[in-house]
Amino acid sequence: MNSRTIVKFSLLMLFILFVGILSWPWKTLSGYGMDITLNILVWIWVALWGAALSILLWRKNIKGSLPLVLLLAGAILMSVPLAWTPMSSWGESLTRLGGIWAMALLMGLLLQFPLRGRERQCIYMIIIAAGIIQTGISCWQILAPENAAAWTEYSFAGQNGRPAGTFLQINLLGSFLATAFLCALWLMSSGLMPGLRKASMLCSVLLCAGVIITQSRSALLSAIAGGVLMCIFNRKKPFILAVLVVTLLGSFVGEATLNQRVKLLPQTLDTAMGNLTGTNHDERPRDIDLRTDWNRQHSDAERFTLLKGGMALIYSHIFKGSGLSSFETAFPKALASEGITNPFTVTVRYPHNELIYVWCEGGILALTGILLWLSLVIAPFRAIKARNVCSRGALLLPLLLHIMTEYPLYLSAVHCVLLVILLWLALPVTIKNSEKRWQPSFPLRLGIQAASYVLCLSGTLFMVTALQSAKQLRQAEDFWLSDPSLLAVSGNDYAQADHLLFDRAASDLALFNINSDVSLLIQFQSQAGEWLKWHNDSNMMDSMRKIALYFNNSPQAQYWNYRGCLSFPQDTRFSCTTAVMQGKPQ
């Protein structure tokens, strides 16, 4: 297989990912990471593409010495904290580190890729096509929500009247559409053919409308910032005027579309809100615009609390970090130690900032690792005289802003891949080619290529079995966890290890409610206690408290009441008096 064949195959693979896999509404588990069917399929795709790209490692010269060093050094430093992380949390930690190393490996392989300007444009066109499809799905979801719900996992009430595309999360959709919008603007200014530039202008209008429809503040801000940067780097009045025109037209189309959706959300039962208010109804505003304003107001306060709690956690373990996968349980304790009121009604798995997250859990070493990666990300902007390179760097803004205000890389493997691809396309040729190339010996070159094949094929096998185990868990949950045999996962016990442990504990409790077998309660305590070491769940904590009272174990009941008050102080099921919150029960 020669280089040009690999190029054509890679373009086909990218089309399959962004237009095929991403556009289909896959049935999925609730949760994040390996619980999401789309993420598993994307990682299978990455492994297969990586195996094809590994052919390029047979060359005598390895390109991109400096980027490779930064990638490997950063990945190693972010992995070192695993050494002092308790083994009971290694399952989730290794999943995250696996994603980090997969991104590094994919980037290293892409640096060997023989890319030309026309092929770069083809990749941007594929991303634009995917964005237009997501815009169409978004319009479908808000204009015909019942029909969309019948075919997808979308819930109009659950998403507060806003679209989620096939990402199942509003801000993930927003950052993707903002990226596609900037890709269309780039083709407007740098397209090789006049017809392509005109088509890109029409696509820009549609994608701008898509960004408006999401009502995502971070997506809108990043789209505006990226457009302004492109105008600064381009400096041509016709282009600046064209950007203003497509932005105004897109905004008009987006607002007109929003005006056609239903104005009021349906009145729904909400158990979580009922635990907070003592009622069975969601008492938030039913008007969609008022609900959006309400959510934003609370989101701003929560983000400020996240920042204060994250910094408190950093100060308590500034050099070593608190250990990988520890943030969810350590964060409420950090708030309590600082006397900060916890405003969250759900558990907080990550701070909404990647730098804070990495520093909290991994300490100075992990922070240094991610800063090495960021030094590679800003490389396109260092080529200030090459305006076209700088404008390609602007395409990274939506994802970078999203990473610093949310946690997209742990929710969406598509965003991981998109970040790697956009960075690869944006890197100056001088960084990829001008440094002294590494010339490994024949045995070493053979070993590197063999290792790459082994990693890619092993990853494919792991993810295929993960897909099988996720399907099995979905079947068990469809039967309300009443059939324990469905939880004896035979495909892959490691991919959804935490989800599987939670479901097995919940199944024991469900079966106890049917046959009153006390041994099931003991089994539940064991499995739920293990799960709660690294996670928070109000229902499970309340069940542990009640079971402790059932067995007349007052200290245990006090402990679980205390844990519930730390993470869910507004939940009326827990007695959160001042005395309880002053210290952890023994």
Written description of the protein model:
With 586 residues, the chain is mainly α. The protein has a domain at 496-581. It has 25 helices and no strands. It has helices at residues 3-21, 37-53, 65-79, 90-110, 117-143, 145-151, 170-190, 194-214, 217-234, 237-258, 271-277, 288-316, 327-337, 354-377, 379-382, 387-393, 397-405, 413-426, 429-433, 442-478, 497-515, 518-531, 538-550, 554-567, 578-581. The protein is globular and about 75 Å long. The protein starts with a helix and ends in a 5-residue tail after the last helix. The model has no long low-confidence stretch (mean pLDDT 90).
Rg: 25 Å
Helix content: 55-70%
Q: Please, what is the average pLDDT? A: 90
Give the class from helix and strand content and strand pairing.
Answer: mainly alpha
Q: Count the beta strands.
A: 0
Beta-strand percent range: under 5%
The end-to-end distance, rounded to whole angstroms, is 66 Å
Total count of helical runs of at least 4 residues = 25
What overall form do the CA principal axes indicate? globular
N-to-C series of helices and strands: HHHHHHHHHHHHHHHHHHHHHHHHH
Largest sheet: none
Residue ranges: pLDDT <50 for 5 or more in a row? Answer: none
Outline of the structure:
By secondary structure, the protein is mainly alpha-helical. Helix content is 68%, strand content 0%. α4 runs parallel beside α18, α7 runs parallel beside α9 and α9 runs antiparallel to α16.
Topology diagram in text:
Elements: H1 3-21, H2 37-53, H3 65-79, H4 90-110, H5 117-143, H6 145-151, H7 170-190, H8 194-214, H9 217-234, H10 237-258, H11 271-277, H12 288-316, H13 327-337, H14 354-377, H15 379-382, H16 387-393, H17 397-405, H18 413-426, H19 429-433, H20 442-478, H21 497-515, H22 518-531, H23 538-550, H24 554-567, H25 578-581
